[in-house]
Amino acid sequence: MKHVHSQLFDSPALLLSLTACLAMTACGTAPSTGVQLHVQDPAAVAEPSGQNPSNRTPSNQTPSSQNPSPAERQVDASDAPSHASLDLGFADSGISFGNSKNWSGLRFNYRDRAAQKITGLNLTLWSPQGIGIEEFQGIALGVTPSARSSSGLRAGLVSVVSDTSDGIDVAGLAAVSNGDTMGIRAAGIATVAEGSADGFGFAGIATITKKQSRGLHVAGVATVSEGGMQGIHAAAIATVAGKSMSGLQIGGIAATAKGDISGITAGGIAVISEGDATGLTVGGIVTVAAKSMTGLQLAGLAAVSEGDLAGLTVAGVAVVGERSLTGLHASGIATVSEGPIFGVGVSGLATVSEQSITGIEVAGLSMAAEEGVRGVGVAGLMLSDTKHSSWDVMPRAPDPEGRSISMNRGILIAGLRTDACNVEGVTIAGLVNRSCDFDGVGISALNSVSGMQRGLQVGVVNYAQDLRGVQIGLLNYVPSNPWYLRWMPLVNFRF
Hints:
The chain is about 5% helix and about 55% strand. It is mainly beta and about 500 residues long. It is built from 4 helices and 43 strands.
């Protein structure tokens, strides 16, 4: 009983409450039926009447274990939760001072001390030991309010801890959940969820989620999810998703995802996706997708896709699609694709494709396509069919007229020269037009066809190995013509 006395008076609240109760008894005033003094300490359980503790020693125990020391009894008592409390109310409802186990109403306590279910207003002076309350509903205030399952408002001077949280959590340093969270969470340093986080999260440094992060989450440094991100995430430094990212994602320096990116994504320096990037993607320096990139892509320096790149793509320096490039694209210096280029494009210096270019393409200096240009190609200096441009005649397809396969169709314009092997259409160059086989109109100071010319050549000097058309120039030369028609001034022809 001496130990029970020490346990009761360890708590300042209990000491005050018990003093008041004893004062009323000494004055002859009996407490009302709503005043209950609960002592639920395991160390304070009385021995059953009629039994001598010494007679209850099991036969297999030693004498030293029959009579534990006071120190041993003290350790056992401190480890067990104490539910000693002064309760003012009825049926576990009203006002409670101490560590009541189940209570509805107003509860004042020093520690939560393993309470099971609390509903109402809980005021905890100091931090709990472990998870303080099994189930809490209402308003909890303290230094570090803690609960396994929490609903309502919890505010902690230092931190707020729970296994699952549904409601509003506010902490001076950190709001931590070992499971899922829903609602509003705000912390001076970090909000942390071992499960999923749904709702609103605000942190001075970081919001961290191990699974899915959904809703609105804002952090001074970073928003991080080991799973996916859905909704709105914004951070001064970075937004990082271990899987996919969708919605509105803003990182002051970078927005990155190991999976797909969709929606609106912006990074002060970079937007990086290890999967597909779809929607509006804005990178201050680069936007990068390990797979395809579709939609509107804006980058200060480069927009790069290791797969297909489709839509509207604008980059200050370069637009790069390793598989194909489709749609409207503009770059300050270069547009480059290892696959075909389709659509409308403008490049400050060069447009290059390791396959073909189809559509309308304009380059400030040069344009090159290994498999030719189809549509309208305009280059400030040079337009070339890099795979086949040479003075040699291309192998001709076995058709009745002996024509080679046409690789360049449309209108090709260059400030200095065009090198296009098999052409159907119009070529215009300031200095030289070179081709293997040509069907159409070639206009340049020098027109040179190493194979068959069908149509019209207009220039100062015109050359065609074989002619089925007309040459107009100061000097016209066709080696395959009869000797009297090989060299002709002004006009030459053969049909």
